[in-house]
């Protein structure tokens, strides 16, 4: 081993190469003889990277469980898909031949052949067989399959779509027309009115460039697809081979047994004006962001087990072949790939090829906030979306007989100002009750209670961890209360449920959940102090406490919004072995993700309280990502030839930095009592800011990137050249760049050593315009941008040189911003994030915005 600093450098390079080339990069290693699913990639480039033409007779692509379905296509004029389907057969036969040659009569099961975005296959084999494959010269990587997980009526109004972006596109009746959004999710309920094609006044043709098909199964019969829902497939081979596929819950079809996929699809592209009726209450009308866009479903996640990378890659590969314009993934890996596999993993590399094919790719940031460096979508070619609150909130309250008012949640009617007597479930037990049920206070069984005590009163029940786990439900409590003729229900929070955030919950009776344990104590103290008990039996002889419940059906719009939600994952990129190459801002921006009304599957079980309903209110970055997908469809409709990176730039540079009251956007910093732990959001919280749909349709300048730029970045990672060759079939050129040098609409420098110069190239997609440049420098850094003023013609480019000089040392990031102000009203914002590692004395020549 070499000595000294040079020796350390050599070891780092060797470690980098091993991590990049390493077999079985996922840490879930199998036992010596236990078969598992592996994703094998081949050195020959995939179809999307190759100019070779293969002439074959029959396509043999695997779409789901063997023999599980037939295929149904709509009457349509097919434009050329991005790839002749015959290529799939060539690759499939090649993969079969390789397996036969390498394993020589041994047992294995090939699940998928990938050929469009990556060249490879998924196969069920033992670790010994995986080792044999890894030794083949044709094989580049053998990676253990890894698991993944799932990560409106008012948001169109909050985003200004009816008066802004939709107007520019001709109104809601044409917004997004001709654009196909592909969803990698839990499927869809095709019977939902949000996906009907009978609502449009004008003809609703299937785009000619889309060539997908609709699987036909007993759960997804012929006719399920239409001119709105243009394609639907499912991918479950990895789960099936593991023996964990539950046909009764998961459905061997594109049908959504969970609810998540139906919800996300309708957020992006659900029909406009669909009534939202839940628990008998009307909450307005729903609409997707691009209500005339088309939906293509690629089901790769399931209720009972989540999903696996092998199935997700197959879904992405198929979506790209079918000709989708946008891919929306409200999913994240269960854990971050190690080392340079941060970027070189099968899902991200498939998505890179999708971007090369012109597809805009969006992914949820993950719900692992508010910790820093918690983001689960990290590659620069993926548009990563965090979650923010919008301005509509639901809440109700209970007013006690001592005039104390306690706030709570509950999508329920109130008692119209009438005071009712409070009766705890524990004080209304039936004398004939047997057994010792410690959870009896949850009110799950009416047989436990005396109806004469409960009738006409407000029943008090406990909300315990069992509700969080789904072992007890609000619905069963309400059924108990109705059976006992209670006037309503008040839930107090069990003190063991700490920091749990409740979505507003539908209730068919007047009801409220007090989400705060502290407020629950106040409520119970009032109740107990008002009781009179028999001194011997300790039974209540008089219930003295009274209360009324205010209604929770009317929304409140006077709310601080947007703000970054506590659960939204934060940047910068995950720490790995290559910090110098992680100079990429994540998330890219934030969008509405909290308390989102959207369509729900008729058999969806993901949220027990919304089972059987047509709509559900959900929260998460899963809900934020499809908001961006829908708005991206509007931009793609206006600029049909726009590149994926330019589309992302239009979204980013126009994002809002202020909330609806004109103050800086805030970010929640704690899981418990998040609204008491707020501070101004940084770019690591919100990326470029909060999505501004109308401005994004007219960005003025954009910052574009090509596939070659991304490859130059990947090749700049130490030890990456062999694995880059393995995935793409291309050799790295001598020209490489770091993350800070990518022409992104942001600048992130994780290690500013004295000084650094970066360039950004702006392209004018508006009219001729003169721009002036202003900036605010990060703390401890001097920034200078040249030129300070420029004129740029329509379609032309302008180079911006940005110099950074360190003034003080710092281990924490500091933030600034560059603004380009056009004389026709365009404003282009570029966030700056810098960590200074070496101080350098110089005169501070910072400029401020003007």
TrEMBL record:
Any single GO BP term: proteolysis
Q: Where is the Subtilisin-like protease fibronectin type-III domain?
A: 741-834
Q: Which SUPFAM superfamilies match?
A: Subtilisin-like (SSF52743)
**GO MF term (any one):** serine-type endopeptidase activity
- The segment(s) forming the Inhibitor I9 domain are 81-150
The places in or outside the cell where this protein is found are: Secreted
- Keyword Hydrolase set for record: yes
Show the ranges annotated as biased composition (Polar residues): 67-80
Q: Which residues form the signal peptide?
A: 1-27
Q: Which GO terms describe its cellular component?
A: extracellular region
- Transmembrane region(s): none
What residue stretches are annotated with the Peptidase S8/S53 domain? 176-660
Q: Where is this region: Disordered?
A: 66-88
* Annotated catalytic residues: 185 (charge relay system), 260 (charge relay system), 622 (charge relay system)
InterPro entries xref list? Peptidase_S8/S53_dom, Peptidase_S8/S53_dom_sf, Peptidase_S8_Asp-AS, Peptidase_S8_Ser-AS, Peptidase_S8_subtilisin-rel, Peptidases_S8_3, S8pro/Inhibitor_I9, S8pro/Inhibitor_I9_sf
Q: Name one Pfam family in it.
A: Inhibitor_I9
Provide the alphabetized UniProt keywords.
Glycoprotein, Hydrolase, Protease, Serine protease, Signal
| UniProt-listed PANTHER family | PROPROTEIN CONVERTASE SUBTILISIN/KEXIN
Its family remark reads: Belongs to the peptidase S8 family.
Q: What is this protein called?
A: OLC1v1023132C1
């Amino acid at each position: 081993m070499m000595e000294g600093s040079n020796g350390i450098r050599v070891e780092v390079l060797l470690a980098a190469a091993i991590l990049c080339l390493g077999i079985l990069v996922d840490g879930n290693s199998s036992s010596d003889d236990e078969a598992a699913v592996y994703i094998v990639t081949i050195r020959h480039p995939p179809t999307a990277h190759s100019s070779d033409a293969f002439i074959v007779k029959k396509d043999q692509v695997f779409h789901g469980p063997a023999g599980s379905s037939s295929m149904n296509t709509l009457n349509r004029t097919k434009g050329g898909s991005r790839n002749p389907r015959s290529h799939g057969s060539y690759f499939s036969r090649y993969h079969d031949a390789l397996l036969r040659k390498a394993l020589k009569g041994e047992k294995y099961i090939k699940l998928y052949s990938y050929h469009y975005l990556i060249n490879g296959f998924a196969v069920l084999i033992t670790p010994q067989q995986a080792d044999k494959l890894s030794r083949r010269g044709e094989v580049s990587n053998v990676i253990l399959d890894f698991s993944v997980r799932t990560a409106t009526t008012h948001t169109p109004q909050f985003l200004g779509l009816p008066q802004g972006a939709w107007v520019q596109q001709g109104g809601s009746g044409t917004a997004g027309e001709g654009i196909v959004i592909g969803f990698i999710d839990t499927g869809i309920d095709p019977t939902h009115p949000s996906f009907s094609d009978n609502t449009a006044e004008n003809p609703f043709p299937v785009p000619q460039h889309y060539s997908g098909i609709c699987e036909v199964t007993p759960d997804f019969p012929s006719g399920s697809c239409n001119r709105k829902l243009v394609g639907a497939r499912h991918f479950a081979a990895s789960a099936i081979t593991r023996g964990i596929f539950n046909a009764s819950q998961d459905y061997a079809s594109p049908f959504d047994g969970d609810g998540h996929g139906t919800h996300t699809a309708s957020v992006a592209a659900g029909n406009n004006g669909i009534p939202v009726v839940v628990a008998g209450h009307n909450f307005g009308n729903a609409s997707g962001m691009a209500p005339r866009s088309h939906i293509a479903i690629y089901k790769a996640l399931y209720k009972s087990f989540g999903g696996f990378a092998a199935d997700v890659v197959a879904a992405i590969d198929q979506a790209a072949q079918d000709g989708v314009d946008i891919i929306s993934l409200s999913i994240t890996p269960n854990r971050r790939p190690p080392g340079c596999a941060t970027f070189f993993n099968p899902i991200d590399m498939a998505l890179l090829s999708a971007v090369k094919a012109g597809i805009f790719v969006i992914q949820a940031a993950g719900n692992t906030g508010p910790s820093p460096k918690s983001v689960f979508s990290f590659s620069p070619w993926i548009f990563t979306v965090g979650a923010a609150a919008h301005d509509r909130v639901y809440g109700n309250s209970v007013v006690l007989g001592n005039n104390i008012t306690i706030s709570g949640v509950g999508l329920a009617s109130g008692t119209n100002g009438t005071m009712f007597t409070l009766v705890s479930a524990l004080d209304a037990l039936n004398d004939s009750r047997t057994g010792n049920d410690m959870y009896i206070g949850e009110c799950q069984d009416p047989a436990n209670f005396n109806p004469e005590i409960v009738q006409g009163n407000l029943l008090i029940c406990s909300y315990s961890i069992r509700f969080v786990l789904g072992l007890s439900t609000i619905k069963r409590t309400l059924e108990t209360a109705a059976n006992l003729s209670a006037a309503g229900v008040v839930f107090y929070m069990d003190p063991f449920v700490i920091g749990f955030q409740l979505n507003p919950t539908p209730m068919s009776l007047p009801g409220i959940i007090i989400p705060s344990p502290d407020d629950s104590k106040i409520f119970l103290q009032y109740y107990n102090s008002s009781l009179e008990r028999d001194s011997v039996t300790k039974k209540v002889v008089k219930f003295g406490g009274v209360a009324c419940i205010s209604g929770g059906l009317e929304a409140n719009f006077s709310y601080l919004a947007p703000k970054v939600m506590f659960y939204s994952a934060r940047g910068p990129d995950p720490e790995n072995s290559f910090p110098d190459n992680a100079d990429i801002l994540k998330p890219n921006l934030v969008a509405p993700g909290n308390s989102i009304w959207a369509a729900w599957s008729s058999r969806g079980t993901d949220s027990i309280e919304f089972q059987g309903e047509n709509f559900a209110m959900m929260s998460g970055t899963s809900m934020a990502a499809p908001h961006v997908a829908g708005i991206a469809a509007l931009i793609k409709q206006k600029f049909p030839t726009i590149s994926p990176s330019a589309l992302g730039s239009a979204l980013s540079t126009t994002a809002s930095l202020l909330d609806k009251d004109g103050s800086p956007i805030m970010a929640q910093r704690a899981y418990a009592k998040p609204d008491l732990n707020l501070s101004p959001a940084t770019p690591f919280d919100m990326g470029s800011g909060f999505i501004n749909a109308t401005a994004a349709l007219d960005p003025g300048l954009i910052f574009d990137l090509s596939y070659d730029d991304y490859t130059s970045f990947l090749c700049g990672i130490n030890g990456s050249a062999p694995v880059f060759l393995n995935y793409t079939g291309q050799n790295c050129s001598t020209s490489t760049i770091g993350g800070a040098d990518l022409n992104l609409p942001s600048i992130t420098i994780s290690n500013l050593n004295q000084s650094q110069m970066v360039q950004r190239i702006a392209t004018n997609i508006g009219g001729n315009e003169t721009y002036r440049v202003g900036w605010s420098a990060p703390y401890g850094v001097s920034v200078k941008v040249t030129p300070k003023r420029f004129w740029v013609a329509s379609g032309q480019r302008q180079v911006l040189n940005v110099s950074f000089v360190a003034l003080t040392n710092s281990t924490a990031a500091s933030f600034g911003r560059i603004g380009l102000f056009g004389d026709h009203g365009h404003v282009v914002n570029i966030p700056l994030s810098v960590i200074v590692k070496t101080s350098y004395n110089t005169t501070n020549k910072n400029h401020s915005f003007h």
